[in-house]
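[Q] Does anyone have a clean structure-token version of this?
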Amino acid sequence: MIAVKETEAMRNEATALDTPPLALAAERAARRIPPLWPLDSHVAVNPYLGESALRLAEAGAVLSRSGGGPITMPRSWYLERIADGRIAESDLEAALDASPYAEKPKSLEALLHAAGEPRPEPAALPTVADLAAKVSGTDWPGLAADRIGVWAASHFDAGQALWVALRGKTAWAAYRSFASHDITPEIMGLAGFAAFVADAPESAPEAISRAAHRLGLDETALESYAHQLFLSLGGWAQLARYRLWRAELAGESDGILLDLLAVRLLWEEVLYERYETALQDDWEKVRATHAQPASPSAAAILDEILQEAWERSGQRHLSERLCETSELSPEDTRPALQAAFCIDVRSEVFRRALESLDGGIRTLGFAGFFGVAAEHRRFASDVAERRLPVLLNPGVHSSATADADRQADLAARFKARARRAWGRFKLAAVSSFAFVEAMGPVYGIKLLRDTFKLNPESGKTDPAPQFEPPLDLSARVKSAETVLRAMSLTSGFAPIVLLAGHGARVVNNPHASGLQCGACGGYSGEVNARLLAGLLNDPEVRAGLAGRGIVVPEDTLFIAALHDTTSDAMTLYTQDAPASGREEELRQVRSWLKTAGGLARSERALRLPRAESEGDLPSRARDWAEVRPEWGLAGCRAFIAAPRRRTAGKALSGQTFLHDYDWKQDSANGFAVLELIMTAPVVVASWINLQYYGSTVAPEVFGAGNKLLHNVVGGIGVLEGNSGPMRSGLPWQSVHDGEKYIHEPLRLSVCVEAPREAMSAVLGRHEEVRKLFDNRWLHLFALDEDGRMAWRYAGDLSWEACPDAAQPARKLNQAS
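[A] Here you go.
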């Protein structure tokens, strides 16, 4: 039996985290965990969000001892690129010079010699559970993860389970109720576990405080150790962080992260009580290490330099590409078609293909929610979908049910309820076995349809969305003006202006929402595009815009569209627009879009495994056995905010976020658009880029594992297999094609055509964004008047001139 060694003095000493340093330590550890959005609205998240105040090597030191895995690729990755010339001598020298560490190699020769040495593998400090497993031979860490996971799957369930844990309690109270009746730990040899749980403090803060005292953890050690325990919980801790994120956006709070920390510390405490004598010496060493700041090793510093050199190589090639000349139609002629696409890297391929068809076609790039931060309710649904960047709160509410659709909406709801009831019946314990035998043949049609990749639901669309409640005229005009100025689209309107959101229609893919629009909260972007098109087609809004200096010609028609990034098919929502008499123009637009789709597929097919031609791509989305329907944003490496003429006609290989921006228009407005770009789209793009980075360099920690082994849990996430912690990040198949990496981890290079002083002023006002650039999680460049990468942000609000891209890079003389 486990003795509960607690005196009254100890109980009085450890009440409710009333020691402020311990409370702050637990809170700091909790906020270092990145959030994880559920599967139905999965968006990319920077897994290094809690380390933005550190440089790469410093973050590596912290994550290494906490189980966060490697922070860069293996040394062999960089050596291969040095050997084949992709990383040039000048890249290595520049990265070495830029490194701020005193312990860095003293010369290029020393750097290359050290790079050839084996890299020590990151080794996390053992937890109490690890030490207890070592002395007992029982896998206590595995058992703790399993039992916590079983409870968490029920507690967090979003409608998948037929039976769920009792709701209405705090997570800590719910876990105590579950664990006090869980006999598995006792069967495994942890006698007295249920009694220990029952005797635990009733509040999570008290439980954390008591455990910290028993384990001898002071403020510094508790923060470090709590961070490690949160990481050991995998996606469950990140899901709790998501709930805190959402609560704070709404001006509220949520103690669920501290509840989870209390749960995990309870296991540490009970195992420490059981094995204290045997593990005390080892635990003392671990505790002492956690009480000390984590310092980067010489190996970590070297890895940071190699990664920086690799990134400078990528920046050099981008600079060369931007220096290329391209033939453009005169800007003073009215375009035949303008098409505004999301800045998503997948749009770059389609935009380039579309522009190549006719000199009168021009495209623009803007965040895919089109400035409409909508919380939307679909037809026959009560779910409020937040179709906006996760950094924002909704500004408007919309739905797809007009008064004329009420009866159809009600009928669809009854049908959906019947479908849910039928689904629950076939899974119920009393009917599941008989169901398969009796009803199996009925599912033959569905199996044939799925096998032959037929999806009759794919062409259905909701009725036109509408604002609830309607905005007054002044608000509509102001919104329209704000969006058009942010798009740098205030004159030169074409007769047809497409507003193209994007999405991906795929089947049998738990991470399908991750292929949707990140700026739309993991949903497709057609709702936002349709709402904005309706706004801009409104005659009253246009009259108001004219009074604000934006004159939209009478014959300009805004049409919402949806770009399916898997098939490169475009859907036009002409039914929403006053398009009568414009049939011939729209026929030409559809022809252009169809041809551009074929060109885009031909380019993408070269990268996708088992795609012999562009004709193979549409069927991949309907193939329920296809683990790579598309590559998503794999390869993303740069963000450019500049007029389209700087990038038009230049093949950027679907690796660059493209945001139209004209600083000369913005300067009269105090660079408000520049500030918006650097603090919103750039940050969202960095989350995407760093999620791909983390899922590539540390797939065991920040990746979702193998798709073939995934099981959806709670409707909110995936397990790899049938147990273990919930996984976060990207599946292995999203970054690797089975033979090689398809994503090459490069931290995002942000190129902005704007005065350096204006960009420095923005960074000076936004400390969190500045940290990302100062610590090299993002690289910032200023483009000159010719669109060249002329200046590099060097940190601390200072800039340095970039090398001339016309000068060839020096390759290393391998013979020497």
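[Q] Thanks! Anything notable?
[A] The longest strand covers residues 496-503.
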